[in-house]
């Protein structure tokens, strides 16, 4: 599975979290390092793009 652009997808927070979980597995980033704050989610999303 390849994620090209997350910012164009309008999804619920739980779906967003699952998407980050899948992507973080691909790039070997532990979910423990991703906090639940919007600011960190935004930062994590930018890392994935």
Structure commentary:
- The chain is mainly α and 49 residues long.
- The chain has one domain.
- It is 51% helix and 0% strand.
- The chain has helices at residues 13-26, 38-48.
- The chain is flat.
- The two termini are 14 Å apart.
- The mean pLDDT is 60.
Which runs of at least 5 residues are low in confidence (pLDDT < 50)?
Answer: none
What general form does the structure show? flat
Question: Could you tell me the mean pLDDT?
Answer: 60
Q: Helical content, roughly?
A: 40-55%
Query: How many structural domains?
Result: 1
Would you list the SSEs in sequence order as H and E?
HH
Approximate strand percentage: under 5%
Q: What kind of assembly state do the chains in view correspond to?
A: single chain
Determine Rg (CA atoms, Å).
10 Å
* Structural class based on helices, strands and sheet pairing: mainly alpha
Query: Count of DSSP helices?
Result: 2
- β-strand number: 0
Q: What is the rounded distance between the termini?
A: 14 Å
Q: Largest beta sheet, briefly?
A: none
């Amino acid at each position: 599975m390849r994620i090209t652009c997350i910012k164009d997808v309008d999804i619920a927070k739980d779906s967003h979290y699952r998407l980050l979980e899948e992507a973080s597995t691909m790039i070997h980033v532990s979910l423990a390092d991703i906090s639940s704050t919007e600011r960190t989610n935004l930062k994590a999303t930018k890392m994935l793009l």
